[in-house]
Amino acid sequence: MPGSGRPSPPPPRPPWVLLPSPALLLLLLLVLLPGGTLRSGLDSAVGSEVNLLDSRSVMGDLGWIAYPKNGWEEIGEVDENYAPIHTYQVCRVMEQSQNNWLLTSWISNRGASRIFIELKFTLRDCNSLPGGLGTCKETFNMYYFETDDEDGRNVKENQYIKIDTIAADESFTELDLGDRVMKLNTEVRDVGPLTKKGFYLAFQDVGACIALVSVRVYYKKCPEVIRNLAIFPDTITGADSSQLLEVLGSCVNHSVTDEPPRMHCSAEGEWLVPIGKCMCKAGYEEKNNTCQACQLGFFKDLPQSQRCTKCPPHSYTREEASTTCLCEEHYFRKDSDPPTMACTTPSPITNVKKGKVAKNSISLSWQEPDRPNGIILEYEIKYFEKDQETSYTIIKSKETKITADGLKPASVYVFQIRARTAAGYGGFSRRFEFETSPVSVAASSDQTQIPIIAVSVTVGVILLAVVIGFLLSGRRCGYSKAKQDPEEEKMHFHNGHIKLPGVRTYIDPHTYEDPNQAVHEFAKEIEASCISIERVIGAGEFGEVCSGRLKIPGKRELPVAIKTLKVGYTEKQRRDFLGEASIMGQFDHPNIIHLEGVVTKSKPVMIVTEYMENGSLDTFLKKNDGQFTVIQLVGMLRGIASGMKYLSDMGYVHRDLAARNILINSNLVCKVSDFGLSRILEDDPEAAYTTRGGKIPIRWTAPEAIAFRKFTSASDVWSYGIVMWEVVSYGERPYWEMTNQDVIKAVEEGYRLPSPMDCPAALYQLMLDCWQKDRNSRPKFDEIVCILDKLIRNPSSLKTLVNASSRVSNLLGEHSPLGNGVYRSVGEWLEAIKMGRYTEIFMENGYSSMDAVAQVTLEDLRRLGVTLVGHQKKIMNSLQEMKVQLVNGMVPL
Ligand code: AMP
């Protein structure tokens, strides 16, 4: 009745109606399973728990057995995904002596000796049941029975071991079902130690009203973890609830043990008390629990160091995971120095003191630098008259003092000093300025005019003598050596090209009136009896080139190359022949062919040089096609560039730089050679007459040198680019068989050689830079050396090759810019020239691409069985034509 106060109690209902409906159970499940995470299947880890059974995740029949049959029953419902919900219920509260069993299927314990059982259930409050209070129970029992296999299901009830009596407790979730409050209980029990492979669980009802919503059986483990760079594996907890298992860790990759790493796995699956640790070994550092290699430019010398450190100044690494950094060229670090120390050149000299000063001389002394970085081999003292820097003198001294003489009186001189150790030269000191004394004008103030005039005349004469002496001493624009004491060596420079320690200016032997004088100034005379000739190795312009041995008394025997001047030579031929020695003798560099000496006092006249086992570079590369690594090729190029840098520093322009004029020894060291005196290149078969009459190796020569004979170090750089191309293509002829005229035209129009096959992009870019039309835009040799050094230090930068599709030779394919005459396949090409009959032979012998076909020689054709001369001609002519087209379609800049 409305408004009559408390609502009347609901009418009694049969007990099963009071149980939550399957749909309601589903709701319960969803509420109780946050994020559904517990819906994982067998064996999945829940935090540190591994499920052995989860009734909610079993898709098919659970296989559980109830007896008697009218006791526990499964509610056959499905969830929204049509997955079965395995809920068992029993509610025989009105009947006496209930004993209803529900047996699970066999559960493997998977090696765990202690397992946990989590039950979720609802239990009807007996007070709410009308009339059944006498028989109604509010608990049920849980049992287990251990067995190694599935045979134990039929054992008797009394063989089961009781785990516990389960009652509803406070840990429930209340659900307002409208007219009733349902309580979902969660109870967890553990069992252990288990000794067999598996077990059954059983639930015994003795007259309660229960819905068993889920059963989850699991064990706990300490999950795999990396702690202190040691890996601790998945570890199943111990059988005892208070047990701590000690576990040994193993060091992660690239790490080493400091103190053996150990940890303890608790019964709750937690790792406790880490002891000991691993450390990343030298060259590796810790990142995200792993040891990562130090990057290029970084190093780590000891496992104990925490991090990779940047290489100290003037040092570098060649590879990742470096334990130390290498010093750059000319930089140095003592063995006893820590690897964190910068590589340095000797430290500059700071403390320079003036000693005795006279009108023509100044004495200086200085202190050894504080940190010389090795034994000081000598000092170099550079000085010049103030504001006359282009004309300077260099004195080398082993002592820390010198006297600079031959100076002008009453003049200010600038001095700079540097030290040399095995590591090379240090920096120059700052400039020190000192003034010579004036010419003595003693008592001039109270003397008569005559003595003053006499003194003036004397001074004039002295000055004139000094000036004449000075001019005479520097007459040959270049340097002259004037030995002073054995500890000192003195050189004068005019308009010097000195950029490197010890590098002098090249003197053109033409400036000597008597070429014999030049050759004896720059080359040692060797006694013919010291030379034994072994065999002929080549033909030079003036005579044979032989190999042999040189044994100078007191020195060790050397293998040498001997160039001979053929009999019946003219005086000019002799001069030109020896001219090469006069030039070569001025050079001293590891990448310039070294002159041992000359034989001029007996016949035959000979030039003796160091022996280069592998002969000329072009022939050597052709013989060893494809045999070298990119780094080896770049190493060769670096050597050539270094030799050329030396020559350009000396002010020497080579004019005929080409692979045929580079010699290579057994260590693959390349040396620049061929220093013909005339440089009109009479001796070079590649040299051709230009319209202006000069003879020039067109394919190697810069356009400005061809057009108006502007030969400079920049034109040598152009030639160097061609040498790079020759080296990377293993001695291929630049511009193939194009005529010289076509080459000049193509280059003038801005076309450049295409990249050789498999050429690193960085190298091809350097070639293109060397072939800049504007010679000032080309790199200098020192820059080239620097670029190549960087590439060598960082080999991965050479991995990017010129894109195959951008290589013009590949453009013979469908992207060819060549228009007519473009062949998509070897077959198409042979068909087009009516030689289709050979297609199969070409393909079978590996000539399956136009790239491969481009390499075919006449000999190859014969080998392939193309024996008819007419056919050979047709094929070779067509190939020739294609190559010319190819070059005409060269890379436009
Ligand atoms: P050249 O007259 O300098 O062009 O020399 C002619 C040939 O002799 C070269 O192409 C080399 O094959 C060989 N040759 C010249 N000099 C040497 C050397 N120093 N060591 C080995 N072979 C050499």
Output the keywords.
single chain; 893 residues; alpha+beta; seven-stranded antiparallel beta sheet; 48 strands; binds adenosine monophosphate
Question: What is the count of helical runs?
Answer: 17
List the quaternary state of the chains: single chain
Strand pairing plus helix content: what structural class?
alpha+beta
Report the β-strand fraction as a percent range: 25-35%
Separation of the first and last Cα atoms: 103 Å
Keywords: ATP-binding, Glycoprotein, Kinase, Membrane, Nucleotide-binding, Receptor, Repeat, Signal, Transferase, Transmembrane, Transmembrane helix, Tyrosine-protein kinase
EC number: 2.7.10.1
Domain SAM: 821-885
Domain Eph LBD: 49-227
What does this molecule look like?
With 893 residues, the chain is α+β, with helices and mostly antiparallel strands. Helix content is 21%, strand content 28%. It has 17 helices and 48 strands. The strands form 13 sheets. Strands 1, 2, 4, 5, 8, 11, 12, 14 and 17 form a nine-stranded antiparallel sheet that branches. Strands 30, 31, 33, 34, 35, 36 and 37 form a seven-stranded antiparallel sheet that branches. β39 (544-550) and β40 form a beta hairpin. The longest helix has 25 residues, at 449-473. The protein is elongated, with a radius of gyration of 48 Å. The N and C termini lie far apart (103 Å). The model is unreliable at 1-47, 170-179, 441-486, 494-503 and 808-821 (pLDDT under 50). The structure holds adenosine monophosphate. Adenosine monophosphate is lined by residues 537-538, 540, 545, 561, 593, 609, 611-612, 615-616, 663, 673-674. Adenosine monophosphate binds next to β38.
